[in-house]
């Protein structure tokens, strides 16, 4: 079951943090939401732990409205469990 993701914002970056099922398609689907906006994440961390996957994606250059939309979209990815 998906949930809204955590947005941690500083002056220039947005960090999305979430836990998901450890399935091959979850991380590529999350990164696709960033890539289709022509951006490359500043930082990506993903660690599998049993049947779970802990993910942090930091992105620079997103307008606030776009950052909120990406966060909502990430929360709708099949396999995303909950916020850290």
What structural keywords apply?
26% helix, single chain, Alpha-Beta Plaits, alpha+beta, 84 residues, 5 strands
Question: How is the CATH topology named?
Answer: Alpha-Beta Plaits
Largest sheet data: 5 strands, antiparallel
Distance between the termini: 15 Å
* Sequence of secondary-structure elements: EEHEEHE
Rough outline: globular
Catalogue the unreliable spans. 1-5
Q: How many helix segments?
A: 2
Number of strands: 5
CATH class: Alpha Beta
- Category by helix and strand content: alpha+beta
What would your notes on this structure say?
- With 84 residues, the protein is of the alpha+beta class.
- It has helices at residues 26-35, 64-75, and strands spanning 6-9, 13-21, 43-49, 52-60, 80-82.
- Strand 3 (43-49) and strand 4 form a beta hairpin.
- The radius of gyration is 12 Å and the shape is globular.
């Amino acid at each position: 079951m998906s949930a809204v993701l955590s947005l941690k914002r500083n002056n220039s970056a947005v960090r999305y943090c979430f836990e998901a099922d450890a399935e091959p398609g979850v991380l590529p689907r999350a990164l696709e939401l960033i890539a289709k906006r022509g951006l490359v994440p500043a930082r990506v961390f993903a660690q599998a732990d049993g049947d779970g996957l802990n993910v942090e994606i930091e992105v620079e250059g997103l307008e606030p409205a776009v950052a909120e939309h990406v966060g909502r979209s990430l929360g709708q990815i099949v396999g995303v469990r909950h916020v850290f």
